[in-house]
Amino acid sequence: PKIRITMTKECHHFNKSRNENSNRDNKLSSILHALQELGATYRQELVSAIPPLVLWSCGSIEKDERKEFIVDLCAAPGSKSLQLLDLLHSMNEKGGDANDIPNGLLVVNDSDRHRIITLCQRSRRVPRGPMLAINMDARYFPGIRRKSGYKQKYDKVLADVPCSGDGTSRKNKNVWSEWSIPQAMSLHKLQRKILRRGLELLRPGGLIVYSTCSLNPLENEAVVSSVIDDVGGTDKVKIVPLPAWLTTKFKAMKGLSTWLVPTSKYGKANKEEDVAFDMYECYADVPAKLKSGKITPSMFPVVSDLELKSQLQHCARFVPLKDSIDSGGFFVACLLRLKVGELGEKPKTDKKKSDDETKTDVNEPVKRARVSVDGTQIQTVIETDASKAASPTNELLREGDWICEVCDKLNFGRRDSRTCIGCKKRKPKIDTEEKVKRQPLLKAPCNKNELDPFLDFFGISSSNSAFQNVRIIHRKRERTFVLVSAPVAALSISEQWGAFREAGISLITMPTVPSGEEESENPKHTEITTLFDEAVPLLALHAKKRHINISTISFQKALAQSIFEDLKKETAETERIKTTIDIPLKPLCGKPWYESHEIATEPGVFIVSCACPLKGDVGRFSFWCRRHADGSVTTETSSRVLAAMLVVVHTYLEVTPAEGERNTS
Predict the structure, then answer these.
(1) Confidence at residue 363, expressed as pLDDT on a 0 to 100 scale
(2) Per-residue pLDDT tens for 306-365?
(3) 0.85 cut: is pTM over it?
(4) DSSP string of 215-272?
(5) Nearest by Cα to 111 from 133, 137, 84
(6) Cβ neighbours of residue 134 closer than 8 Å, sequence gap 6 or more
(7) 193 vs 158, 188, 347, 398, CA distance in Å?
(8) In terms of C-beta density within 10 A (0-12 exposed, 13-18 middle, 19 or more buried), how is residue 652 classed?
(9) Are 78 and 119 within 8 A, CB to CB?
(10) Which of 127, 133, 175, 556 could serve as 169's disulfide partner, Cβ 3.0–4.6 Å?
(11) Which pairing describes strands 478-483 and 470-474: parallel, antiparallel, or unpaired?
């Protein structure tokens, strides 16, 4: 079972320094680090776990047990994404295995390439079949299509947006010296765009949770209220109250309906050495010199919509006080999209120009960009007709939209939209010479010769339901087999899409078959070159071949011997291992462990497992090895994972020594 550890002030913060007063704390610290390395636990601040919990509890699963489609717009470093992944696994039928693939979709995204790579590395420790990781700016999150042609809409969206972090001052001392009002005000525009894009991704009846680790209203209520007002008010989107048990237990403060907006130089001295303490109630009170982007109308309360003003009280602000949540500060708001169709948008006016400057002559030539049908060629034309000058341009185009070249009508991208809604003229076809045929990224196995050799190698039946959604990613020299959920397999993703990072559980890699050559002609084409660590627990549950079960003591010796050999190499990973384990290895390194067991005689990879029963539950541990032609065996699993398993297995044998000699199957 997965365990989620939430940290508060009174909780013991375990670290690698091992400077605790007792050996018991040292051992507990070592176990916690090992369990986290294996993906069994994840340490997370208490208040950070609230947004995913609100997103899941406010939206109920329908009676027909429909799939859950979720997107995390700003996912890295990944604590909330892993929490959502755990919640997706909770949808599995009672009694199902934790490694079963839930029938859902979780798209995790982050704009920072290095942070999304870190998230992918962390997610490999858990079954992540429903997960698709991409690297995009959340403001321009792509509209992914399904193979049926429809755009993918989502049931739930999590927008934990970038913020100034003034609510983290309790744990982050740098906030006291680095936080500033201009920084907080500069993020307002970014946060609005992310929330707006999140609302566009929702299906009618879908939920989005907007959260920040800031407490000031310019990053919270001002963003929520202004975006709702822009898209059409509470008739299109409404704020949903948070669960009463949550707000009552942690004494959450209600959202604000009125607030003041400070000048960007609040508290600083000007040239006349006067300290500025100006605060404004409405945009009309702001001096003209401050209206050039520093202070915008969206920062002020919406006074025209009384219903929206009353709904702002449904937002919650968790204050970092000991008698409330006793954690960091956080703001959470849950929004429900009500109606079908495009969200509204307020007309934009240029504040810099006067009324005389904004008037244009109807006969004055107007430059306008025209987009061709395929959306790739843009040309600038000169038009004198005022009606054509006011027609839609490429700035209004979304994915799949097109402009008729006859009447200039904007046609929204929808399934089978081949004629113009205005003149009924047929949509021109794209020139076949210019059209590039895009290959799908996640390809289904073309024939039995692709998937069956892999399943037969481990003795897995081709009718096994756990492997029905295996897809292949073709690279230049190798093929990667990945296991995804049914909704991920239904997505239409091109192999040229640069935003893609990872999808599902990586199983194995095989060499690429050269074009024009049959796979069965060369046995090297079906040779498994790599078996991924994340696939080993799943394969150990279903493999009937190339898989041995050994006793817990033998398993401990196998781990110790492999780690002992790895520690002879001076690398950064071995230094990390030394801080993870505090177990004498040499007494366990005698006769090679594999000489005492019957393992596969043919060269290649195989899996070694053991079971650790404890109070009715069974913990399973597995790693993978490779047998060479000379009969020797090398362990290929990551040394960090081996060290973590050794710590847990060693502790298990200390607690239940009688179970050590049993060879459980």
Answers:
(1) 42
(2) 999 999 999 999 998 877 788 889 999 999 999 777 777 765 554 444 344 434 443 444
(3) no
(4) -SGGGTHHHHHHHHHHHTGGGTEEEEPPPHHHHHHTTPEEPPS---EE-TTTT-B-TT
(5) 137
(6) 107, 108, 109, 116, 142, 499, 500, 501
(7) 14, 9, 16, 15
(8) buried
(9) yes
(10) 175
(11) antiparallel
Amino acid at 73: L
pLDDT over 80 at 61, yes or no: no
pLDDT for the residue numbered 645: 93
pLDDT in tens, 147-187: 887 888 999 999 999 999 999 988 888 888 888 888 889 99
Which residues, at least 6 apart from 201, have a Cβ–Cβ distance to it below 8 Å?
A: 71, 141, 143, 153, 154, 157
- List, in order, residues 6 or more apart from 265 with CB less than 8 Å away: 182, 276
Among candidate residues 149, 342, 321, the one with its CA nearest the CA of residue 231: 342
Angstrom distances, CA of residue 622 to CA of 55, 98, 536, 539, 608: 34, 15, 7, 9, 6
Terminal CA-to-CA distance of the chain, rounded, Å? 20
C-alpha to C-alpha distance for 418 and 318, rounded to whole angstroms: 51
Whole-number Cα distances in Å, 623 to 35, 84, 98, 292, 556: 16, 27, 18, 61, 12
pLDDT in tens, 536-559: 999 999 999 999 999 999 999 999
Residue with tokens 């051992």: 27
At residue 307's C-alpha, the angle toward residues 304 and 312, to 5°, is 100
| β-pair type (3-7, 41-45) | parallel
Q: Which of 58-67, 126-135, 248-257, 552-561 has the lowest mean pLDDT?
A: 58-67
| Closest by CA position to 371, among listed 351, 400, 344 | 400
Distance in angstroms (rounded) separating the CA atoms of residues 254 and 249: 14
Q: What are phi and psi of 390, to 5 degrees?
A: -90, 0
Q: Which residues contact 511 (CB under 8 A, 6 or more apart)?
A: 477, 478, 479, 524, 525, 527, 529
The answer to whether 508 and 467 are in contact (CB under 8 A) is no
What long-range pairs does 11-19 form, CB within 8 A, spacing at least 24?
A: 16/579
Q: What's the DSSP call for residue 442? A: S
Element (H, E) at 43: strand 41-45
- Closest of 553, 596, 539, 573 to residue 644, by C-alpha: 573
Residue numbers annotated as active site: 213
From CA 530, how far away is CA 8, in angstroms rounded?
Answer: 41
Taking a C-beta distance cutoff of 8 angstroms, is the pair 451, 462 a contact? yes
pLDDT at 451: 86
Token pair 């541990």 is found at: 621
Residue 567 has what pLDDT? 85
Given a contact cutoff of 8 angstroms between Cβ atoms, the answer to whether 308 and 214 are in contact is: no
The DSSP secondary-structure symbol of 538 reads H
The total of other beta-carbon atoms located within 10 Å of residue 83's CB is 23
Q: Report the distance separating Cα 47 and Cα 326, nearest Å.
A: 9
Q: Considering the chain, what percentage of its residues have pLDDT values greater than 90?
A: 42
Q: Provide the CB-side half-sphere exposure for 104 (13 A, CA).
A: 26
Structure tokens at 473: 């990613």
